[in-house]
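Lecture 7, part B: from sequences to assemblies.

Below are the input chains for today's worked example.
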Amino acid sequence: MMLSRVAERVYWMGRYMERCESTARLINVNTKLLLDLPRGVSVGWGTLINISGSEEYFQRDTDDADERAVMRFMLADVNNPSSLINSLSSARENARITREILPSEVWELINDLHWYLKDNLGKGLARRERHILLQEVIDKVQQFTGMLAGCMSQNEAYSFISMGRNLERADMTSRIVDVGVSSILPASKIDTATEPFENILWMNVLRSLSAYQMYRQHVLDRVNAEDVVMFLFQDSMFPRSVEHCFAHLSQCLEGLPNGEDALRVLGSVRRKVKSADFSNLIDAGLDEYIDDLQAEIGEIHRSIAATWFLPEVQIAS
Amino acid sequence: MQIDWREYDSGEFYDELISSPGHPRKVARHLAKYLAGLSGEDIAERKLSAELAIKTMGISFTVYSEAGNIDRAWPFDIIPRIITQKEWQQTERGLTQRLAALNCFIDDIYNDQKIIKDKIFPADLLASSANFRTECMGMKPAFGVWAHVCGSDLIRDNDGSFYVLEDNLRVPSGVSYMLENRKVTKRVFPELFENYNILPVTEYPTQLFDTLAAISPRPLDYPEVVVLTPGIFNSAYFEHSYLAQQMGVELVEGGDLVVEDDTVYMRTINGLSRVDVIYRRIDDLFLDPEIFNPDSVLGVPGLMRAWLKGNVAIANAPGAGVADDKIIYTYVPDMIKYYLGEEPILPNVPSYMCHDKKQRDHVLANLDQLVVKPANESGGYGMLIGPQASKKELEEFAGLIKASPRNYIAQPLIALSTTPIIGNKNAEPRHIDLRPFVLQGRQSYVTAGGLTRVAMKKGSYVVNSSQGGGSQDTWVVVEEGK
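Predicted structure of the full complex, as C-alpha cells:
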C-alpha cells in the first residue's frame, strides 16, 4: 500500500538525483568543448544557463557571463533552484522523508554524497579539479541507480523512482542536444574552416552522454549532426535516448493502477518524437522543436501528478 | 590525551563509574582499565569513527530556531554508562508499577472519578489542568490503557538511589537515539562486547508494534498501524521515520489521512485504505481541527469522532496527557497506593506545590535554593535553577509564581549523578539523567536501560538535546557471579 505523498517524494528523489548527474554532464561537455575549440569558435558560458532554463535566477546578462560566475551559479548558488547543490539537497530531503521505504544504503549514499559535495564545492570552480568533482557526482548517481536495481524490491516505489529518473533524463538529453544546436552555425553556413569543429562539437555532445561508443557501433557514418540528433532522440536501445526513456516510462505506467490518462499523454508525445523529421529540423526549427518537447515533458509530469500525488491542500482562509 | 583515572574526581557527586579518584566501581573495572589503556591517538580515532558513523547513518535531531539548517548531527560521547542488572530489575518493576497506576488514574478521571470522590485527589486540581480534555469523558480504550508509551526521567542523587523526576505521557521522544547509540558503540568498541554481558535493546520496535497491534479495533493479524508525524520540521522527525521503518509501518502526515463515515483512511496510489491504529507523535491540540485548534494543518478533521466511535485506536490516547503535569506527578505515590494497594518502588523527587499557600510561602522564601518548573512545559523550557540564577531571574520567577501558583512546582536541587565523558586532557565528570521507555497494552515492557542524556557543559544540569545536551550508550550489565 503506497501513500500518495510517498509516491510523490520518491518520484522527485529520482528526478533530482538524475538532475545532479545531468548537470554534471552538461558542465563537462562545455568544459571539454572549450579545450578543443580555438578562440573565435568558442561556446559562451552563458549558454549553459540558458539551456538549464534558469536564466531568471542569474543576476547578470548571460551573454557576457564568465566561466567562474557561471560555475558558481550552476554548482554552488543556493538561490538557483537547479544548482547542483540544491538538486542534491532536494534529493536528500526527499530521501530523508522516505527513508523508511528505501534500502538504508541508499540513504547513506545520498547523505555521504551531500557531505562530499558541500566540502568540495570549491574544486568545481577551478577547471583543473572540476572534472574530479563532477565525475564523482556522476559515479555516485550511477551507484545509486545500481543499488536500487540490486537491493530494492521492484515495487511501486521503485516504479515511481524510475519514472522520475526517465522523465528527467529525457528532458536533459534534449537540453544537451540543445547545447550542440545553439553553439552551432546553421548548416548552410558551414564551410571548410568551421567543419572540423562541428565534428568536435557533436563528438563532445555524445561523450557527455557516454554515448560515443554506442553511437559508433550503431551508426557507421562519421559523426554528423543529423545522425547524432536522431540517435539521441529516436534510438530504442541507448538508455539515454529520449525514445528509450519514454519506453521505460511507459512500462512503469502500465504496471500502476489507474495509469490510463498518463499513458495517453505519453503516447502522443512519443509518437511525435518517433515520427519527427530531423533532417529538415536541423536546417531550421530544431531549437523550437526542443522547446516544445520540453513543454510536453511537463505535460507528462502533470498527468502523473494529477493521477497519483496528493491533491493540493486548500487551507480555509 | 590519555585517561588517568587517578586524576578523575567527581567531587561531592555520585559518579556512575568511578567511586573515588582511581577506583572504578566493580562493574566498571574492565571498562575503566580498557579505556586507560588506549593511547591518545586511539581515543581520537574512536571519537572520529563515532562521528562518522553518526553522520553516515544520518542520526540527527532538529533545533526549532534554525530554519536554514534543519538537522544537526546527534551529539554523542563514546564512553558507555553502566547499570547493573540487579539494580535495573528493581527499577523496571518500579516503572511498570508507576505506569499501571497512571493508567488507572487516567481511566478513572475520564469515567467514574472515584479518586476524587474518595478525596485522595482534589477536584479543583483537575479542573485547572491544562491537559484535561472533557471531550474524552466516558471513553473506554482497550485494556483501560490510555498511555501506551511513557518516557520517565530518572535521576540519581548523592545517596546513589534513583528518583523519578517526571513522567512524559504525551509524545515522549528519544528511544531511537537509545537504539542508535548502541549501534554506534558496537561499531566503535566491538571488543568490549566480548567481555561484558550486556542486555540487548533491539527488541523495542517489535514490542512497540505488538503493543499497538493489540489495541486495533478490528481483530486482524496484521492491522494497519501508522505513525503520525507533524512532518520534517519537527525536532523528533528522525525518530518518527526511524520507528516507522523499524516497525515496517507507514509514516503519515495529517494530509495523508482522511475521515469518512467516522472511519480513518489513508490516501494511497490505489485510493483510500483503512487505518486501524495511529501511533501519533502530535500533541492533542493539533490532532483534530474540528475539536481542538481550528488552525491546525497538522491534524485530521474528524479524527476524534472516529476515535470516540471506536473505529480507530490512538496511542497515546487523546487526553492521556492529563497525568503529564507536574502537579499531578506529586500524587503518583498516592495513586499507586490507591489503585494498586502497593507501596511505590521508585520514589518521587520531593516537591512543593505552589497552589498551596504554606508550600508557596516556603518556596518564595527559599527560591535561591530550589528548582522551579512550570507544570506543563517539556524540553527544559521555562525552568529556574535557583542556586545558579541571577537576582533578576529570581525576582522574575517570584512574580510568575504569585501570578499563577497552579502553574508551578518547586523541588530541591538534586545533586545529579555524574559519569565520565571524553574531555580535552582527561575523562571529565558530567551530570546525567536516564530516560527509560515503558510500554503498556495487553502486557507491559521496559527497555533495558534507556537513553542517558548528558549535560555536556561542565557543571551544567540541563541535559535536553534542544539545549546543548548530549548522550551516551547505556549498558545494563549482567554481573557474572564469583
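Note for the exam: The mean pLDDT of chain B is 91. Keep this in mind when comparing with the next example.
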